[in-house]
Amino acid sequence: MIGVVWVAAGLFLASGLAVAYVIGGAAVLGFFATDNARYLAILPQKVFSQISVFSLMSMPLFILAGELMNRGGVTKALIDFSMSLVGRLRGGLGHVNIMTSVFFAGISGSAIADSAALSNTLVPEMERRGYSKYYAGAITAASSIIGPIVPPSIILIFYGAIMQTSVAALFIAGIVPGLILASALFALNAWFAIRDDHPRLEKGEAPPIGRSFVTALPAMALPVIIVGGIVLGWTTPTEAAVVAVVAAFLAGYAYAGFTLGDLSESVKRTAVLTGSIFVILCAAATLGHLAALERVPQLIASTIQDLGLGPVEYMIAMNVLFIIAGMVFDIPVALALLVPLLAPVAIANGADPVHLGIVICFNLSIGLVSPPMGGCLLVVSTVTGLDYWKLARHVMPFVIAQIAVLALLVAVPDLSLWLPRLFGIW
Length: 426
Hints:
Blueprint lengths: L1 H13 L4 H15 L9 H9 L6 H13 L3 H13 L5 H17 L2 H18 L4 H12 L9 H10 L3 H7 L1 H22 L12 H23 L5 H19 L4 H34 L2 H12 L3 H18 L2 H18 L4 H14 L8 H10 L3 H24 L2 H9 L4
Helix pairs in contact: 1-2, 2-14, 3-14, 4-13, 4-14, 5-6, 5-12, 6-7, 6-8, 6-11, 7-8, 7-19, 8-19, 8-20, 9-17, 9-18, 10-21, 11-20, 12-13, 14-17, 15-17, 16-17, 16-18, 17-18, 18-20
């Protein structure tokens, strides 16, 4: 009987129905197929308990802050400052691309927003200066996944809500992994620059560092406000999000001047994104309720025990599964589907919830630049007009470097945990 549910889910998905409705509809059918229909009476309570989490209040606020900054002329200021710092190095514009992504990550927390903004600006400029257009697109897509790792990160908030884990600890824990990823991409870009004789900016082409720093200061102050407030204990992540919205509005107004239309569009976009995430959460809560009734986590745990998998082997197997999921599903969908089932088993085997959150979110972010459904690849391909599959082939060296960083984070949990412990947050 349960096979009918999988067939129904496949038909729903093939019809073009949104994934959240596919999950929710299949889960409701699953209650009937498993003779658990009587438990549907308490489903609304289960769903609302899943989304009635204080830390989730920060998510729409951080989304709004990112929207305001994206519409406020921030990108040019960050690119100019990055050029003044690293533009004169061999392969300078590749380094600028990565460094701008680091700065941009602390503002938007979104890989998609980063890749869209830089595809419009840096990719044409890199091509004009002699870079292969596919290399320019590949490094833009690859560096954009720094966004979901460093604070403020929407997917870390999402994970924290699902697993009831401190969002503040997750934010602080993401800083070092994000910088390690940036360093790996810098090193790979330097190697390509030497191999392919990439150009550098000549003297006078990069803006003066003092002037560009002053111009970029309002934009760069935002991540400092967020992280500093949380680390020093002045604000919770939700309070920091409120401050971020105010700072984003003031910074955007200083750069470009906001109109009522800009503000209205930012609020509308935030409402749409927030609504789509909460619909996924509700669908996942429905599926999680059914999984708990059918004792699916316990079944997974017993299967692992029967297979003789230890904590390390299970972590490796789980990471392989998440990489595959990240190639197919949107990150919120993959988090909502897999984390409630797989993460508790890993924690029972001794994994730290914060370290596990960083590893899972980093893992799924790699899926954004991995075919067949890499979201950032699709954005870069669409904005620049590059062939998707050629772009996917050029991005593979960067994906291999990202997987190497992921393996390092799995092997050395202290890379994620030492900073939260240093500040007494975890």
